[in-house]
């Protein structure tokens, strides 16, 4: 057996009893001392615990008191705020909401190319050109300039504004162009041209606002033609070079019309024999660019475009903006409106150097003007009449027509004037229905809207312009900027939600100094706010306000609010918080991200 096994088995060495007793006594003695010590410790511990408990209790009480105070304070603040809110008028509340929206608009990234934004490039001086006003105009005093502006109701804003010039000849416009203008019975400049052309000729960035049909197209095309002439004369453009400038339009139809004007002026110059041939390109969706291939094989001076196709062409390097220094946006408020501005920034990103930027429109609400102004370089603002006001040469008639009676009443309305007449509807299906109805009634009518093919749209415009068709039924597409000869009557079958659209639609008549009538159908389907916008617009233009429209009350009056126009859309009958344009802008923003210029028209 192994001894180790025993060790593990509880072996105890022997200790004598006396020794064991003594040891136990010693142990008991220490135990006694320990017990006393333990008691003391225990008592101390209990005291401390009690103190802890008392402190904890005190803390709990303090906390509860504090919480009660905070709660009370919060309640007080809350009730005070509630009292304040209750004390605020609806107008004050609306104003606060408006301010929030305005702040959001103001925080938009400024309009500049990605490179400029990334590198923080800002230009401080406008581009310079070799153009100078004649010395006798330069010698006039500022007061004399102001007198001319006053005479033509031209408002200006900006630094070092070039002088207004009352005669085309004094603007140093080439003779063949003057002759061409004369052939179209254009003898002297309109107010927007009197101030806009000299400012643009001087190389200045420009915001030009003037009512529909007041000759804005010439005001932004002439400066580009002059710049192109100057550049071509300096060093002729070879294949792959150019363009010098680009004109952006919100719809294919408007781009086509502007391009046709530019081409006519280019031809007039070339025909004279003393001026070089300037080449222009129409760059819009829905057409094959092959037909214009020969232009791309020469030096290119001017491009007229809708944004989508332009971005395509630039991205595919069909031409570049390396020599481009002029960018004009027609109907510019639409272009830089919430939702479309990304495309504009994208286009700007193709510019490699400073450009002259011009924005023109009949409607440009204050906020869009402010935003645009921040993005331009030392801009000149030229304003003829209130932005968004109706053309005073249009007699505006608003009629209450029940929905089901509209078609029959339309026939009656068509008797008011001789053709050509435009009928506007907001809805594509309704446009088709109206055309069908008119055709059934034996009226030569064409229709145009965003879902029609490019060929159908071109055919409609061509046959209506040539006089082959008497009536054109159109959706909003045809309302912006299209210049048809002698339209005497515009019928608005369904009133657009945005008053700006109404202003553009009635503006297809009463152009270049002629008069025209606009008849608008409204009924209980027309929102009160739209009716209010319309009522104020009629009052502003000193038009007759029918009783049913006069009776539409403005809730802002009851709330004691100020009757300011909406800074987002310019409508006079509402504030920002219920602006129809903001909703639409969001919708369009989403649409524009899905890609534009694929079907509807530029936008
Ligand atoms: N100085 C002028 N005198 C007479 N007619 C002019 C003059 N300038 C332009 N016009 C003519 O006036 C018509 C309207 O011009 P334009 O289309 O440029 O107007 P607009 O201001 O651009 O209108 P909108 O805001 O509707 O686009 C055109 O037929 C044009 O030829």
UniProtKB/TrEMBL annotation:
Gene3D superfamilies linked: P-loop containing nucleotide triphosphate hydrolases (3.40.50.300)
Biased composition (Basic and acidic residues): 36-48, 56-95
Location of the motif Q motif: 166-194
Pfam families named in the record: DEAD, Helicase_C
CDD domains from the UniProt entry: SF2_C_DEAD
Span of domain Helicase C-terminal: 393-556
One MF term in the entry's GO annotations: ATP binding
One cellular component (GO) term of this entry: cytoplasm
PROSITE patterns in UniProt: HELICASE_ATP_BIND_1, HELICASE_CTER, Q_MOTIF
Domain Helicase ATP-binding residues, every copy: 197-382
Keyword Ribonucleoprotein belongs to the record: no
Enzyme Commission no: 3.6.4.13
Region (Disordered): 36-95, 584-603
The protein, known as: RNA helicase
């Amino acid at each position: 057996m192994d001894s180790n096994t025993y060790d593990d088995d509880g072996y105890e060495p022997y200790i004598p009893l006396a020794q064991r007793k003594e040891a136990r006594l010693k142990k008991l003695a220490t135990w006694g001392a320990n017990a006393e010590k333990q008691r003391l410790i225990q008592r101390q511990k209990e005291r401390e615990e009690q103190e802890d408990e008392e402190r904890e209790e005190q803390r709990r009480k303090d906390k509860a008191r504090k919480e009660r105070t905070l709660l009370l304070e919060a309640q007080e603040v809350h009730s005070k705020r509630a009292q304040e809110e209750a004390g605020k008028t609806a107008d004050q509340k609306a104003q606060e909401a408006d301010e929030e929206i305005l702040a959001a608009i103001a925080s938009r990234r400024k309009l500049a190319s990605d490179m400029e934004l990334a590198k923080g490039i800002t230009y401080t001086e406008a581009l310079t050109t070799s153009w100078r006003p004649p010395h006798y105009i330069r010698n006039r005093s500022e007061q004399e300039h102001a007198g001319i502006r006053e005479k033509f109701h031209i408002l200006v804003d900006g630094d070092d504004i070039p002088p207004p010039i009352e005669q085309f000849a004094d603007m140093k416009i080439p003779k063949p162009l003057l002759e061409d203008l004369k052939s179209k019975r254009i003898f002297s400049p309109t107010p927007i041209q009197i101030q806009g052309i000299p400012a643009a000729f001087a190389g200045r960035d420009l915001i030009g606002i003037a009512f529909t049909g007041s000759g804005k197209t010439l005001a932004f095309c002439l400066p580009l033609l002059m710049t192109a002439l100057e550049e071509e004369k300096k060093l002729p453009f070879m294949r792959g070079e150019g363009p010098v400038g680009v004109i952006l339009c919100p719809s294919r139809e408007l781009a086509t019309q502007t391009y046709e004007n530019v081409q006519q002026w280019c031809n007039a110059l070339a025909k004279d024999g003393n001026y070089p041939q300037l080449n222009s390109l129409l760059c819009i969706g829905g057409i094959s660019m092959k037909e214009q291939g020969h232009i791309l094989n020469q030096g290119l001076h001017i491009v007229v475009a809708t944004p989508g196709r332009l971005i395509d062409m630039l991205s595919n390097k069909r031409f570049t903006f390396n020599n481009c220094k002029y960018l004009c946006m027609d109907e510019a408020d639409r272009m830089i409106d919430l939702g479309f501005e990304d495309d504009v920034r994208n286009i700007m990103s193709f510019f490699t150097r400073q450009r002259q930027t011009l924005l023109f429109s009949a409607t440009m609400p204050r906020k869009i003007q402010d935003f645009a102004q921040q993005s331009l370089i030392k801009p000149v603002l030229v304003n003829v009449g209130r932005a968004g006001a109706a053309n005073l040469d249009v007699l505006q008639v608003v009629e209450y027509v029940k929905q089901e009676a509209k078609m029959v009443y339309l026939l009656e309305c068509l008797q008011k004037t001789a053709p050509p007449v435009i009928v506007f509807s907001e809805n594509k299906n309704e446009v088709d229905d109206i055309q069908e109805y008119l055709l059934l009634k034996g009226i030569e009518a064409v229709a145009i809207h965003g879902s029609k093919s490019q060929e159908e749209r071109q055919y409609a415009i061509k046959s209506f312009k040539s006089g082959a068709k008497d009536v054109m039924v159109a959706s909003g597409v045809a309302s912006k900027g299209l210049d048809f000869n002698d339209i005497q009557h515009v019928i608005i079958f369904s009133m657009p939600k945005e008053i700006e659209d109404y202003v553009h639609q009635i503006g297809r008549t009463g152009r270049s100094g002629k008069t025209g009538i606009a008849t608008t159908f409204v009924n209980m389907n027309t929102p009160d706010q739209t009716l209010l916008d319309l009522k104020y617009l009629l009052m502003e233009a000193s038009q007759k306000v029918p009783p049913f429209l006069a009776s539409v009350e403005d809730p802002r009056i009851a709330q004691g609010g100020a009757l300011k126009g909406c800074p987002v859309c310019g409508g006079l009958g509402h504030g920002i918080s219920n602006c129809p344009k903001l909703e639409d802008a969001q919708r369009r923003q989403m649409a524009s991200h899905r890609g534009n210029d694929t079907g509807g028209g530029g936008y």
